[in-house]
Amino acid sequence: MSIKFGPIFHVGYAVPDIDKAIEYWTQVIGVGPFFLERHVTGNDEECVYKGKRCVQDVTVAHAYTGEMDIELICPNLISPSPVVDFLQRHPEGGVQHLGVLVDDWERTLALPEVKRHLVLQGHAGNIRIAFVDGSPIGATALELIESSDEIKGKFARLKKLCNEWDGSDPKRGRAPAPGGR
Length: 181
What we know:
Elements: E1 8-14, H1 18-29, E2 34-41, E3 45-49, E4 52-54, E5 57-65, E6 68-75, H2 82-89, E7 94-102, H3 105-110, H4 112-115, E8 118-124, E9 127-132, E10 141-146, H5 149-163, E11 171-172
Parallel strand pairs: 1-6, 2-11, 7-10
Antiparallel strand pairs: 1-7, 2-5, 3-4, 3-8, 5-6, 8-9, 9-10
């Protein structure tokens, strides 16, 4: 547990090939199913990365194992972003960030240790996100995710579906909405 931000519940892997990554996680490690969204674009996202507007087109997939959300992220567009920069340094992919839910957004972003290393701020839909860069010391980035009932509900639904997984249908479309199955 981070005494500053709360528990780390999310691990983000930058991957060069989303389908191979899902196959590895489901077939070798036995984690799944992965809920896949191809071409998540910047059309509804507003991000600033290292002081410049950041336009993204990524494919993402999520699955839970116990209490941990595993996110696989593969860029479809090569433009400056935390994931593209990571894959340029590590073409085979790997753990790019860890994620925490943040209750007090303004207070957290105002912390000197956060401000000093903040490299991305923006929105993913209506959820605010920010990245604290760890690369100057060879560390993994920290993704700050604004806590809300919506995001907590999304992760709770994913966790339930994944923790009940029987091994069938390892790659699925977007996770169901509340009340869906």
